[in-house]
Request: fold
Amino acid sequence: MALERGTRKVPSAAERGPVSHALFRVVRLHRMLAGQLLRDLGLHRGQELLLMHLWDSGPVRQTELIAVLDSDSATVTRMVQRLEKAGLVERTPDPLDGRATLVSSTSAGDAMRTEIERMWHDLEAATVGDLPPATLAPVLDALATIETNLATATAKSV
Reply:
């Protein structure tokens, strides 16, 4: 028999993983909304995270972006190419290693900061809704624990 969680039934096959099922649903909806908000800015999911890192760090090698975004080389390469085509980032030779290139935000990329910050604010407001501020710290603590647990499990399986 399927369990009821909020307004959703947990499929009987997922009854042994109600937290995982809830996370799957929440993450899917969060990604959908983030994608919608980013499309309004002319961006795809993840591109804003790349720009955020560049704003904080300045020019970096693409290998650093791969690590920071926890992504693969091909995905980050396509992301950088699209952002470069849009005029938001540029690639220049690394003065310390002629074989490497540095990726940096352009003035157009820097100009996106306010819009991206607003987008993240809107995403956060939609995500937390009317949750009382006092409940947010425990939610963040629980999510940090879940992230640690999943990172540990992922590292063990690699």
Notes: The CA atoms of residues 89 and 105 lie 4 Å apart. The longest helix spans residues 133-157.
